[in-house]
Design goal:
The protein has 211 residues and is of the alpha+beta class. Helices cover 32% and strands 15% of the residues. The chain has a domain at 29-67 and 106-187: NADH Oxidase (3-Layer(aba) Sandwich), CATH 3.40.109. Strands 1, 2, 3, 4 and 5 form a 5-stranded antiparallel β-sheet that branches. α2 (40-51) runs antiparallel to α4 (130-148) and α3 runs antiparallel to α5 (161-168). The mean pLDDT is 92.
Length: 211
């Protein structure tokens, strides 16, 4: 429908959702998912959030692999189990009865592998890892957007990286950060954070300076 000038009428804006602050404070890591469709439009909207995340000098080193194949998901699921078992050899926290023993679900939710190209970083003093910071910001942007759309999500970084690269055909020189998984939450975890007065210092870190 158009008005007398032949232009479409203005659309009614959607009702306001939670504020950004509320989303940040209430977002949680969801590791258990229920089966259910996630529309491609929502996946693309979440990927757009990652695309628009900042990066040093706008080098945009981050790339995303949307894993849709059930066969590839199954390979990743097997590798997730192997990766957790390997860590459990040294640290009991990762064993099946440990507090971090749960093997993340890579088959039910949507899976976005996050990789980054070290050649698109800057030659900074001390450390040349801007490509990893860029990827981390993209992950957080996707996480907040997924949560704002009503999905539970978690970033899975527990991997034998070279094996994951082989499954996903990632160049050996690139960094595989992990997988961002999101979908219909089957749990509602709770957690807390340290108070600001234990985290924030003014001007300098507390303690006497060295002579």
């Amino acid at each position: 429908m158009t008005n007398a000038r032949g232009t479409p009428p203005p659309t009614t804006p959607p009702p306001p959702g939670p504020s950004l602050g509320a989303l940040i404070r209430s977002r949680r890591a969801v590791r258990r998912f229920k089966p259910g469709l996630v529309p491609d439009a929502d996946v693309n909207e979440i990927l757009e959030a990652g695309r628009w995340a900042p990066s040093p000098a706008n080098r945009q080193p981050t790339r995303f692999i949307w894993v849709k194949s059930t066969g590839v998901k199954r390979e990743l699921q097997q590798l997730a189990r192997e990766s957790k078992e390997l860590s459990g050899y040294w640290d009991p926290i990762f064993r099946p009865d440990g507090s971090s023993g749960l093997v993340n679900d890579l088959e039910t939710p949507e899976v976005i592998a996050v990789i980054a190209d070290p050649s698109k970083s800057l030659s900074n003093v001390h450390a040349d890892n801007g490509f990893e910071w860029a990827a981390a910001m993209a992950i957080y942007a996707m996480w907040l957007r997924a949560y704002s759309l009503g999905y539970g999500a978690v970033f899975v970084q527990h991997w034998i990286a070279e094996k994951a690269k082989k499954i996903l055909n990632v160049p050996l020189s690139w960094t595989f950060l992990g997988t961002f998984t999101f979908g219909h939450a089957a749990e509602a975890p709770t957690t807390d954070r340290l108070p600001l007065d234990q985290l924030v210092s003014i001007d300098r870190y507390p303690g006497r300076p060295r002579p």
